[in-house]
Design goal:
This protein is α+β, with helices and mostly antiparallel strands. The chain folds into 2 domains: 129 residues, Diaminopimelate Epimerase, Chain A, domain 1 (Roll), CATH 3.10.310; 113 residues, Diaminopimelate Epimerase, Chain A, domain 1 (Roll). The chain has 6 helices and 17 strands. It has a 17-stranded mixed sheet that branches. The termini are close together. The model has no long low-confidence stretch (mean pLDDT 96).
Length: 279
């Protein structure tokens, strides 16, 4: 972070999708400013701002913008579907467009606003080979060698999906934390617990690596829909209830589309003193 940024403060936005909340920093037209130290400081809900993930908007060649994601513990996140929807809505409102293209470490993605005001993002095809998820050794992703017979799916970040009789009854804080760091996942993993509500209707609770329990997880919702279809539990289009609301997931030929609401809560400015302390 350069001295000019520190001396002038740093603008940010607070947004959320179904309670999955984000700090958004717009670095277009300049250099990236987020560091692990700054992400950790901002992610502290008592001494910073607090977020599930931080999204930094950067310039892009061949797309409308680039997005980088950070977890609250200062680690990098490979994908964040709800943050992607939130930032895409922001850029669409700025430009007056009904669709945008963007780049992430996942690759090129696209998003659009539907006539009903909900925002959809194509999260790309799922990663179903063990090495791409990734796992630490060869194993069948459809039946991972772990207690509970979970499914492994990559959506730009790894997911471990458990189908259980009642997602509400799971000890999420305990079991999520335990499986996040299982040696089967060399990059750690997001952990989802899912139960069936009705035909093509699921209930999901999630533990996100680097963040803990969250009210929603977009890439996790996509992974759950893929896993449920591969297990023969649902079709390719699923209604998914999370702690923060409801998402629509549609696994199409061109990728896994996720649709839901977004909210822009407030704008703020980080003080020079805060930035200097965490530069």
């Amino acid at each position: 972070m350069n001295r000019k940024t520190i001396s002038h403060g740093l603008a940010f936005l607070k947004m959320h999708g179904l309670g999955n909340d984000f700090v958004v920093i717009d670095s277009r037209g300049g250099e990236p400013v987020v560091t692990p130290a700054l992400a950790r400081a901002l992610g502290d809900r008592n001494r910073g701002v607090g977020f599930d993930q931080l999204a930094e908007i950067r310039d892009a060649d061949g797309a409308d913008f680039t997005l980088d994601f950070w977890n609250a513990d200062g680690s990098r996140a490979g994908a964040c579907g709800n943050a992607t929807r939130c930032v895409s809505d922001l850029v669409m409102r700025q430009t007056g467009a009904d669709g945008v293209s963007l780049l992430t470490t996942r690759g090129g993605l696209s998003a659009l606003r539907r006539a009903d005001g909900l925002v959809s993002v194509n999260m790309g095809p799922p990663q179903l080979d063990w090495a791409d998820i990734p796992l630490s050794h060869a194993a069948d992703p459809l039946h991972l060698p772990l207690p509970g017979d979970p499914v492994g799916v990559g959506m730009g970040n790894p997911h471990c999906v458990f189908f259980v009789p009642d997602a509400e009854a799971v000890a999420l804080e305990t079991d999520g934390a335990r499986f996040e760091v299982d040696p089967l996942f060399p990059q750690k993993t997001n952990v989802e617990f899912v139960s069936v509500v009705g035909p093509d209707h699921l209930r999901m609770r999630v533990w996100e690596r680097g963040a803990g329990v969250t009210l929603a997880c977009g890439s996790g919702a996509c992974a759950v829909a893929v896993a449920a279809h591969l297990r023969g539990i649902t079709g390719r289009r699923v209604r998914l209830d999370v702690d923060g609301g409801t998402l629509e997931i549609d696994w199409r030929d061109d990728g896994v589309w996720m649709t839901g609401p977004v909210a822009h809560v407030f704008d703020g400015t980080l003080t020079p003193e805060f930035l200097a302390a965490h530069a």
